[in-house]
Design brief:
The chain has 313 residues and is of the alpha/beta class. It has two domains: 223 residues, Alpha-Beta Barrel (TIM Barrel); 68 residues, Non-ribosomal Peptide Synthetase Peptidyl Carrier Protein, Chain A (Orthogonal Bundle). The protein is built from 14 helices and eight strands. Strands 1, 2, 3, 4, 5, 6, 7 and 8 form an eight-stranded parallel β-sheet that branches. Helix 8 links the parallel strand 6 and strand 7. It is globular.
C-alpha cells in the first residue's frame, strides 16, 4: 500500500503478528532512474523477515533491470503488482492495466523471473471489469513461467475498492487441478470471524490483510488466535493504542526525519483511535502539531483522559 506499508508501519504490524510482509510498491522506472523516493522503499530490516519487495511497471527491460536492483537489498522474494487500480498507475500501462493484455503480463513476468534467483510472486485482481474476469487464465499462465505464489484481490479494476469482494473465482483457482502454487486471497477481511469463514469456505492457502491493518495492527494476532482457539483476544484498550501509535510515530521520525515523519503520520491518528468517543478535539491537535514532544504529550493526555471514561461510541 503506497504511503502506508513503509518500515514504521511494517514494524508495528510485525510486532503484532504479521507473518509475511511486503514493501510499498516501487516503480521499476523510478528504480532504474535512481529516484530517491523509489530507492528509499528498498529499505528492509532483518526483523521484518520474511519480506518481499513489490515492483510495478509496463516495460520488460525496466522490470528486469529493476529486479536486479531489488536483489541487492536481499529480500526474501520479489512480488509483481498487477493489481493496483489507481489512475496514475493504470495510465502508465502498469498495475491492473496489464489485465487487459495477458500476453504482455506473461512477458513482463517472465522478464522478472529470468532476472533473479529469488522467488517471484504476483498480486493481481479478478480482471479488468465484470465482462473480462481472466484471473483463472492468468493463474495458469503465470504458474507455467515460474511464479511461486499468487495473491488475488477479489475485485475487478473497474470496482476499485467498491462493493463486496468476490472470492468465488479465487476458490476456483485454488481448486484447479493444474494449479500447484500457493493461492492467497485478499479483500474485505476485517475480522477474525471473516478470516476463518473465508479460509474454510474458499480453501485458500493464506489470507492477505491490507486496509484493515491501517491503525489496527492487532488484527494479525487476533485472527491467528481465533483460528487456533475459536476465542477472541481482548480488544486493545487506550493504553495499548497510545503505545503502538507512539511507536509508529517515533519510528516514522527516525526513518523519514522529523518533518516528513510527523506529517505523514497524520493520516494514521484517526485509524488508531477509530470509534473512540469525542476524539475529534484530540485528533485536531495531533494533526496540527509540528513538534514530536508536543505530540507525545497529547498522546499521554489521551491515555489519562480516557482511563476512566466511556471509550467507545
Amino acid at each position: 500500500m503506497e504511503d502506508v506499508s513503509d518500515p514504521p508501519f511494517r514494524a508495528v504490524c510485525k510486532a503484532n503478528g504479521a507473518d509475511m510482509m511486503y514493501t510499498e510498491f516501487i516503480s521499476s522506472e523510478g528504480l532504474i532512474r535512481d529516484a530517491m523516493k523509489s530507492k528509499m522503499k528498498l529499505d528492509i530490516f532483518d526483523y521484518e523477515r520474511p519480506i518481499g519487495i513489490q515492483i510495478f511497471g509496463g516495460d520488460e527491460e525496466a522490470m528486469a533491470e529493476a529486479t536486479q536492483i531489488v536483489a541487492v537489498a536481499q529480500p526474501d522474494l520479489v512480488d509483481i503488482n498487477f493489481g493496483c487500480p489507481v489512475k496514475k498507475v493504470v495510465c502508465k500501462g502498469a498495475g491492473a492495466a496489464i489485465l487487459k493484455d495477458l500476453p504482455k503480463m506473461v512477458k513482463l513476468t517472465e522478464a522478472v523471473v529470468k532476472s533473479t534467483s529469488l522467488p517471484v510472486t504476483v498480486k493481481t485482481r479478478l480482471g479488468w471489469d465484470e465482462e473480462n474476469k481472466n484471473v483463472e487464465e492468468v493463474a495458469e499462465r503465470l504458474q507455467d513461467i515460474g511464479i511461486q505464489a499468487l495473491t488475488v484481490h477479489g475485485r475487478t479494476r473497474a470496482q476499485l475498492y467498491k462493493g463486496e469482494a468476490d472470492w468465488t473465482l479465487i476458490a476456483r483457482i485454488k481448486n484447479n487441478p493444474r494449479i500447484t502454487i500457493p493461492i492467497f486471497g485478499n479483500g474485505d477481511i476485517d475480522s477474525p470471524e471473516k478470516a476463518l469463514e473465508y479460509k474454510n469456505r474458499y480453501g485458500v492457502d493464506g489470507i492477505m490483510i491490507g486496509r484493515a491493518a491501517i491503525g489496527y495492527p492487532w488484527i494479525f494476532n487476533e485472527i491467528k488466535h481465533f483460528l487456533q482457539t475459536g476465542k477472541h483476544l481482548d480488544a486493545p484498550g487506550i493504553p495499548q493504542r497510545v503505545e503502538v501509535c507512539l511507536t509508529h510515530l517515533e519510528k516514522s521520525v527516525m526513518w523519514k526525519g522529523n518533518r516528513a515523519g510527523i506529517f505523514e503520520m497524520r493520516r494514521h491518528y484517526s485509524q488508531y483511535f477509530k470509534g473512540i468517543n469525542h476524539f475529534k478535539e484530540f485528533r485536531t491537535r495531533l494533526v496540527t502539531s509540528e513538534s514530536l514532544e508536543e505530540i507525545r504529550a497529547i498522546l499521554q493526555e489521551v491515555e489519562v483522559h480516557y482511563s476512566n471514561a466511556d471509550m467507545l461510541v
